[in-house]
Design goal:
The complex is a heterodimer. In chain A, strands 2, 4, 5, 9, 10 and 11 form a six-stranded mixed beta sheet that branches. Chain A has a five-stranded antiparallel beta sheet with strand order 1-3-8-7-6, with no helix packed on it. Chain A contains no helices and eleven strands. Classes of the chains: A mainly beta, B mainly beta.
């Protein structure tokens, strides 16, 4: 069964303390890996798409990387406003008509203290 | 303003009473999808649509129906709601027919079935 696992479930950081979130997947035929940010009571907001191993993307204090089995979301010198739940999702090459199926991980709740 | 709208935002209903949650996007997107979000289980895909009259099951389709008669609308139908369908529901859309790029999420519909 295809699975997407995020770790840790929750992460508490001090402002300025850099760290990484992990998204591992046990699927075949990855067509894309996505990172989203979700604030309480709101819909997820898109951050990055990665399509192939070795790819990296950056946006402000965030950097996403991808290997054949996992992705990391690196947060450099975080600020309190980076506090949110971070979700990853994978699009799979399931064959047939299931090209549009996306599977999300359970998310990592990030809290950054001033 | 480019957006995905959902109605209603909040709904309390009783077991067995048919209901429809509407979803509409104004971005001319090909792909639309419904998700439910439950504590500890993350976002799970219910159904998705890659074009008008083209729909397919996600991971948790049981108890739900969808239709895509127009490009902009993708309603979610619960023919006979049950308490285990109490959840937070999100609609999303994407330009790519296979959902392989940024998805725009609606604000969510909180459904309670008693």
């Amino acid at each position: 069964e295809d699975q997407v696992t995020q770790s840790p479930e929750a992460l508490r950081l001090q402002e300025g303390e850099s760290s990484s979130l992990n998204c591992s997947y046990t699927v075949s035929g990855l067509r894309g890996l996505f990172w989203y940010r979700q604030d309480p009571g709101k819909g997820p907001e898109f951050l990055f798409t990665l399509y192939s191993a070795g790819e990296e993307k950056e946006k402000e204090r965030l950097k996403a990387t991808l290997t054949k089995k996992e992705s990391f979301l690196h947060i450099t010198a975080p600020k309190p406003e980076d506090s949110a739940t971070y979700l990853c999702a994978v699009g799979l090459d399931a064959g047939g008509t299931s090209y549009g199926k996306l599977t999300f991980g359970q998310g990592t709740i990030l809290t950054v203290h001033p | 303003e480019a957006q995905v709208t959902q109605n209603p935002r909040y709904l309390i209903t009783v077991t067995g009473k048919k209901l429809t949650v509407t979803c509409s996007q104004n971005m001319n997107h090909e792909y639309m999808s419904w998700y439910r979000q439950d504590p500890g289980l993350g976002l799970r895909q219910i159904y998705y649509s890659m074009n008008v009259e083209v729909t397919d099951k996600g991971d948790v389709p049981e108890g739900y129906k969808v239709s895509r008669k127009e490009k902009r609308n993708f309603p979610l139908i619960l023919e006979s709601p049950s308490p285990n369908q109490t959840s937070l529901y999100f609609c999303a859309s994407s330009l790519s027919p296979r959902g392989l790029n940024e998805q725009y999420f609606g604000p969510g519909t909180r459904l309670t079935v008693t």
